[in-house]
Amino acid sequence: MSSQPTTLERFPHINDDPATLSHALDPFTITTSTGFMPYATAPSTLPDVFKPLLSLLDRFPVVRADGSPGLLAKYELGPAVLAELPDLTAEVDKIVTADGSPDLFTITALFRDYSFLASAYLLEPCWENWCKNPDRGYGLGRDRLPKSVAGPMYRCAQLLDIPPFMSYAGAYALFNYTLEDPSKGLQYSNLRLVRAFERGLDPKSSEAGFILTHVDMVKESSTLVAGALKVISTLEQGGSRDEVNDGFREILRAMEKIEASMEEMWSQSKPADYLSFRVFIFGITSQSMFPNGVIYEGIEDNKPLYFRGESGANDSMIPLLDHLLQIPMPSTPLTKILHEFRAYRPLPHREFLAHINCKSAELGVRDYAVQDTETTVLLLKTLDHVRSFRWRHWLFAREYIIRRTPHPTATGGSPIVTWLPNQLSAVMDLMISVYDTYLCPKEGQNGSSNVLSSYQNQVAPIMELVRDQREKLAKEVDRWCKERGV
């Protein structure tokens, strides 16, 4: 019997009503009601002492909320930050709940706002270069972040246990939306951005569409988390196979909704618009704009620091399935980048994913699944959603980025051509292995062959597509690598 705590013991709030959770808890504390979303809609304002920060945030977008040009439109943000923003680092530790604990909910909003300002400040010269001479690339960003920005952002990051740079969940996307009408909930048309770099305060803009489509996808993650939890908890408790199968079916229902939302990206954020606002979400590692990193003034003895940029690869939904389904990744430098991205997720996400990874291995989820034909089919269908998700992500990278710019790295610092195919090929390989070993009709089969044949009309078309896509992907990657000299 395992001495490890059960999933419910390890995550005591997982079945709680999110409305009852204290703001002393990280806003990304996972529940089966909210999944990987924050347990409450992020605040759009800050304590009064941070008014100088809010003033800059209000004025810096290329197009402000009222439609007028902002500081970035005139390349005036840098001087304004230096002239106007005091160092408010000492104020961060004063943000507490009634019992004196750090108010991590408000601190995350503060981290979001300082990280937006930091990225805008560091990348403003790249924005100017891109606007004036797009064919000449991005040039160099600023390599020093003033203490008035670096200090508070670094302190917030310490309290949240995340790197001090803009991240996907805690800043750019999942803690960066509000509701136009709270009574209408999380329907896409009701979502609005809190912060934006370019034109995103207009909900019809491509910048808004890019970010809010991610929010719209992750809002369906509650069912995904609940399904994974049912699979793990049932195996922990020695429950029935029917319950495990029901957990897989919950995951499948969630993934259908998530991928339907993902497909809307094409219409909500136009491929031709992406490169414009993308300038501001690059990181400061493995990027030509920051060959020597960035000095955070007054931080870590003024040694240059390096952080990966915001990336949808920091999302937790597909990694959850990677761990639950025990998808083996190749031992490559590209997989090493995948592991580095883990640090940029909120602490509760990291802890939950690590737990699922350990529990799946301990309980042998995949070995359990393949002992029964129906569960094996459900496993294969779930793997197929991981494939489909990653394939669509590859199409986005190809159409939004690869066809439009020679810049060799994605915003997170991964190689733009080869990184996504590394993970996509891994899930395709596992699907082929599972099918060929457990579901492919074999000569001389009898008895169970009737059961197997009843599933062929479901799984055979899936596998035909997988084999075709695998060959197509290899040819595409080879062609793009040759064209780019990779």
Task: Tell me what the structure shows.
By secondary structure, the protein is mostly helical. The protein has a single domain (9-484), classed as Up-down Bundle (Methane Monooxygenase Hydroxylase, Chain G, domain 1). The chain is built from 19 helices and five strands. The protein has helices spanning 7-10, 51-59, 77-84, 89-92, 104-132, 147-160, 168-172, 206-218, 221-236, 241-263, 265-268, 271-278, 317-324, 333-341, 347-363, 365-369, 373-402, 419-439, 449-484; strands at residues 144-145, 177-179, 191-193, 294-296, 304-305. The strands form two sheets. It has a three-stranded mixed beta sheet with strand order 1-4-5. Strands 2-3 form a two-stranded antiparallel sheet. A hairpin with a 7-residue loop joins strand 4 and strand 5. Helix 9 runs parallel beside helix 15 (347-363). The model has no long low-confidence stretch (mean pLDDT 93).
